[in-house]
């Protein structure tokens, strides 16, 4: 799903949380959005259906903030924590 579509759904109150998940230790991060029905929505690239990848956690957090999230859930294997993005 495109960023603008996710932003509209966020304003409508559809999402429960935003998660940053590593793709691999060297490739970067991806954002996944969890709805109130526990469905997962993935942020796609603007020009294709591929999943958007971020080189850094800061880049992923900046997009989550731009969408409207105040908190970002970060997960690396069994390690989980929350970061304030505002």
Structural overview:
It is a single chain. The protein has 86 residues and is an alpha+beta fold. The chain has one domain (3-84). Helices cover 23% and strands 38% of the residues. It is built from two helices and five strands, in the order αβββαββ. The chain is globular and about 35 Å long. It comes from Marinobacterium lacunae. This is Plasmid replication protein RepB.
Structural class by SSE content: alpha+beta
Placed side by side, the strands forming the largest sheet appear as 3-2-1-4-5
Indicate the mean pLDDT: 93
Shape: globular
Q: Give the H and E element order.
A: HEEEHEE
Sheet with the most strands, sense and barrel status: 5 strands, mixed
Descriptive key words:
Plasmid replication protein RepB, 86 residues, globular, alpha+beta, single chain, 5 strands, five-stranded mixed beta sheet
Strand and helix layout:
Layout: H1 3-11, E1 15-24, E2 28-35, E3 40-42, H2 57-67, E4 71-76, E5 79-84
Parallel strand pairs: 1-4
Antiparallel strand pairs: 1-2, 2-3, 4-5
Protein name: Plasmid replication protein RepB
Organism: Marinobacterium lacunae
């Amino acid at each position: 799903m495109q960023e603008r579509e996710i932003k509209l759904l966020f304003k409508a109150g559809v999402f429960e949380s935003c998660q940053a998940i590593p793709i691999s230790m060297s490739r970067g991060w991806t954002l996944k959005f969890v709805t109130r029905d526990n469905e997962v929505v993935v942020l796609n690239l603007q020009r294709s259906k591929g999943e958007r990848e971020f080189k850094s956690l800061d880049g992923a957090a900046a997009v989550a903030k731009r969408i409207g999230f105040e908190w970002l859930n970060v997960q690396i294997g069994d390690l989980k924590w929350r970061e304030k993005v505002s």
